[in-house]
Write a structure and sequence with these properties.
heterodimer; A: 604 residues; alpha/beta; Rossmann fold; 4 domains; 5-stranded mixed beta sheet; 29 strands; elongated; B: alpha/beta; 2 domains; 6-stranded mixed beta sheet; two-stranded antiparallel sheet; 10 helices; 30% strand
């Protein structure tokens, strides 16, 4: 046993003070009485009943000395030492990934891990520098090298389990940096999976038990012949056969329910037909309770392809017409340049060699060969004869593997501040794309008739890319995401304000400012609503965030541990930090004080 | 002590004037008084007839009887005689203690009893005793003598230890049968029983007034203290505990019970008074009648 606050022993000076007080107290205050005769009788009586009565005041003094000594010992912070007590830095990593929600260890793996951490902090000797790291989708250093146990405990209690997947790479690099910094650091990882962080220099505390879990790992839909067909994948991760009652909900109403029998470790696809066409929010839930509830529901959003109206203003451009007609869901309207001022009712306006004085406001715009002297794109009087190599690395050029275009002449354009170069020829911008306010614009700086591009396989791909970007088939590109994945939006051009409403009902403004940044706070599972307000009304779109299927597979974690029996033995050894005796001494002191009180009052 | 502490207002004096000290003993003194005596005398209260013999006062011959029986009878009347009332006041230091002070109350009680006795034409002696017979004022009679008693009581000092057995035995008996009232806390080292026996032997009708202060009856004291006997100066360091207080209470109860039992056996009137009683109640409890 050692004392971490030996200075407290200075208080031992108080012991002689107590004795001195007793000695002084022996000179009792005089209390005159009429006659001592009756008191003699009383004292005789009392002493006859309690032979140690004469010692009583001494007993009180001894008890007081004992209580005081115990209190001083308690102040001196006595610890029972163990081997691990010589560490100066203790780095504790807690896994906040979704699988830690599992209730095979009560109250949950995560809470059990936190409890263990609190115990370690409380029982560590003073002066240990604690670093607490939460390892989830993001690795966060909650406390960095703090010796303040109160603060450390507070931050441990505030750590929350997430729905994400642990980002091992990030955790590993942070840990390595921390270990390099500290000389005598001990790393303790609280997780259900031994991730082998920072090499073998880690104590792993496993918080996992025998679990029983089944999950809906996938729910997806397809529209075939105007009929919605859903596919859900069920997985039984337990080693026993399970009968699961499965329910399909559409817009929170039950559409269908089935009973599915799954063998041990079996994965089964379940198809659902007869889904009403107007259903938007589709979710599939295992109603049978298990150790991990969060993965019992998978969600998706049914997005039937919307028909997008495209107005092509051109004198004649067969290439463009052909390329656009290949894209499904596009309704193409052609007009000649005389109807240039047709500015309403289309999702996309394509101007070929012409530009109106005022750009339409209710749709996005694609311009080919912008005319000289137009008000929107600054174009030099002289055209360029592009030479050199064609360069691009923009996402709009995805799947295009051709850099040998031939262009006889193209406009010499100045890149506006809202735009970025998609394709350049010898350093000059050939295609510019960007978002001006909420309106997306693509400017192609050449006439298609002056190039060989339409004759190349890249052309329909480029046009498809451009169209998908300008008039996306969905507001949210993916109908379902994993937690912490970014949700990128394709807002309608006339949107003035855009909000995201989380499953718990929190309304977060994402725009203005435009362009809309991807929404990153997708840590909550459930359906998110995208609310877009335009001057014509409000449009609602949805996307779902699902439990990461990797985290459902709890048995995988078990297997990994079981494979390495040596490490299991090592890992299961409790992390011994010694024992803080402060409370024991304080408790004894309290007991002695109670005893003294009893002796004082009823000691005879 | 201030005179006003002892003196009573006239209204109170009037009330107690009507009291008599009940005493079963018929007085045997020769002086005429206000009490029935065994001797036949000249009062108006008829007692008996007796045949006339020479030398009898012929004024007492019952001539009606002579007419009926033709013999000379003389009427005998109860002679009313004065009683000798001896009031012993314990003047030891222990009596000058307590709140209200036992000594003050004892003197007031003594004064009241004297006044009552004098009003009844009794002869009153007040005797101060501690460990000896200190002083006394003897054979006061008539109400005028009351002022002497008051003066004596006023100047009575409280000092010395208590040894009532010894002190009372120094009393000569007051010249015959009488009433002896002892006002004391009876916290006497040598006890009281021998003194009572002695007084009864001296044909005294003994009457004990046991005055104790509230603090003696239930001490309100705590912690570690040094008990100092005001009489002897003897000190004792004690830690007052719940248990000790209970033991004290037992000792006190046994002390009172002992005296009370002794008095009951010997046909002695005993009254235990608390010094916080009003004078009226004290007299009521002592004399047994309402003033």
């Amino acid at each position: 046993m050692t004392f971490y606050s030996p200075l407290s022993f200075l208080f031992l000076i108080l012991l002689p003070v107590i004795i001195l007080l007793y000695l002084l107290k022996q000179k009792h205050q005089d209390y005159p009485i009429s006659s001592i005769i009756l008191w003699h009788e009383a004292l005789k009586d009392v002493e006859a009943n309690a032979p140690w009565q004469k010692l009583r005041s001494n007993i009180l003094m001894i008890l007081q000395l004992m209580a005081m000594s115990l209190l001083i010992f308690s102040l001196a912070k006595p610890y029972i030492l163990t081997e691990t007590d010589n560490v100066s830095d203790l780095i504790m990593v807690i896994d906040t990934s979704a699988s830690m929600q599992c209730k095979d260890v009560l109250p949950s793996r995560f809470e059990a891990a936190k409890k263990e951490m609190v115990k370690i902090v409380e029982n560590s000797r003073p002066g240990v520098r604690f670093t607490v790291i939460s390892m989830g989708f993001q690795t966060t250093i909650e406390v960095n090298k703090s010796t303040d146990k109160g603060r450390v405990l507070d931050s441990i209690r505030q750590i929350k389990v997430t729905n994400g997947v642990a980002n091992i790479q990030e955790a590993r690099s942070i840990l390595r940096a921390l270990v390099n910094e500290a000389d005598n650091a001990e790393i303790v990882v609280f997780s259900d999976t031994d991730h082998d962080l920072a090499g073998g220099n880690v104590k792993f505390i496993e918080v996992a038990g025998q679990n029983d879990n089944a999950a809906v790992t996938l729910l997806s839909t397809s529209v075939r012949n105007d009929e919605i067909l859903a596919l859900s994948t069920l997985a039984n991760y337990s080693s026993e056969q399970k009968t699961l009652s499965l329910t399909l909900y559409g817009d929170e109403r039950v559409i269908d329910a089935r009973e599915i029998v799954l063998g041990p470790k079996e994965i089964k696809d379940v198809y659902w037909n007869d889904i009403p066409q107007d259903v938007v929010l589709l979710s599939c839930t295992i109603e049978t309770p298990d150790d991990l509830e969060a993965d019992n529901t998978a969600r998706t959003v049914v997005n039937p392809h919307k028909t997008r109206k495209v107005l092509l203003v051109t004198e004649k451009n067969i290439f463009l017409e052909k390329a656009l007609s290949l894209i499904p869901g596009i309704e193409l309207f052609k007009t000649n340049t005389q109807n240039i001022n047709l500015q309403e009712g289309y999702n996309l306006y394509i101007y070929d060699g012409i530009l109106p004085e005022k750009l339409p406001s209710d749709g996005n715009v694609m311009v080919f060969n912008p005319p000289h002297g137009n008000k929107h794109i600054e174009v030099s009087e002289d055209d360029l004869q592009p030479g050199g190599t064609w360069e691009y690395d923009h996402s709009l050029m995805n799947n295009v593997n051709d850099r040998s275009f031939a262009v006889s002449k193209m406009r010499d354009m100045v890149v506006p501040e809202w735009g970025e170069v998609v394709l350049s020829a010898g350093g000059a911008p050939a295609i510019i794309a960007g978002q001006k306010g909420s309106q997306k614009i693509i400017v192609v700086g050449f006439d298609l008739h002056q190039t060989d591009i339409p004759l190349r396989p890249a052309f329909p791909i480029m046009i498809a890319n451009f169209t998908e970007w300008l008039v996306p088939s969905r507001t949210q590109e993916i109908p379902h995401l994993l937690p912490f994945e970014n949700a990128a939006f394709n807002v309608i051009p006339e949107a003035e304000e855009v909000w995201v409403i989380t499953p718990s009902g929190k309304k977060v403004s994402v725009a203005p400012p435009f362009p809309v940044m991807p929404y990153a706070h997708t840590e909550e599972l459930g359906f998110y609503t995208i609310e877009q307000r335009t001057n014509k009304g409000t449009q609602y779109d949805f996307f779902a965030v699902n439990f990461p299927a990797d985290e459902s597979d709890l048995s995988f974690h078990e297997a990994q541990i079981e494979n390495d029996m040596d490490s299991l033995e090592k890992n299961n050894a409790p992390y011994d930090v010694g024992y803080n005796m402060t409370w024991i001494f304080a408790l004894f002191a309290l007991v002695v004080i109670c005893l003294e009180w009893w002796v004082y009052n009823y000691g005879n | 002590m201030e005179k006003k502490d002892i003196l009573f207002d006239s209204e109170f004096l009037k009330k107690i004037e009507q009291l008599r000290i009940n005493s079963r003993i018929l007085m045997s003194t020769t002086a005429s008084g206000n009490r029935k005596s065994k001797a036949k005398g000249s009062s108006v209260e008829f007692s008996d007839y007796r045949e006339y013999s020479i030398g009898d006062d012929f004024r007492r011959i019952d001539w009606n009887a002579y007419g009926r029986f033709d013999k000379l009878f003389i009427k005998l009347f109860m002679e009313e005689r004065e009683a000798r009332v001896n009031i012993f006041v314990d003047t030891s230091k222990s009596m000058d203690w307590g709140e209200p002070n036992k000594g003050v109350q004892a003197r007031r009680l003594a004064a009241a009893l004297s006044y009552i006795s004098l009003s009844n034409f009794d002869r009153v002696s007040v005797i101060a005793v501690n460990n000896r017979l200190v002083s006394s004022i003897r054979s006061v009679h008539t109400k005028e003598g009351f002022w002497k008693v008051l003066e004596y009581l006023e100047n009575m000092p409280y000092e010395g230890t208590t040894a009532l057995n010894k002190a009372i035995r120094e009393f000569d008996g007051g010249g015959g049968a009488g009433i002896s009232i002892i006002i004391s806390d009876f916290l006497s080292f040598d006890g009281i029983k021998d003194a009572i026996k002695y007084l009864q032997y001296k044909k005294q009708d003994v009457f004990l007034c046991h005055i104790l202060s509230p603090e003696e009856l239930s001490p309100a004291v705590g912690g570690s203290i040094r008990l100092v006997d005001v009489e002897t100066g003897e000190a004792r360091d004690v830690t007052i505990t719940h248990g000790l207080l209970k033991a004290y209470q037992r000792a006190l109860d046994s002390f009172i019970y002992d005296i009370r039992e002794f008095c009951l056996k010997r046909g002695i009137k005993y009254v235990q008074l608390c010094s916080d009683l009003s004078m009226e109640n004290m007299i009521l409890m002592t004399v047994g009648e309402k003033p």
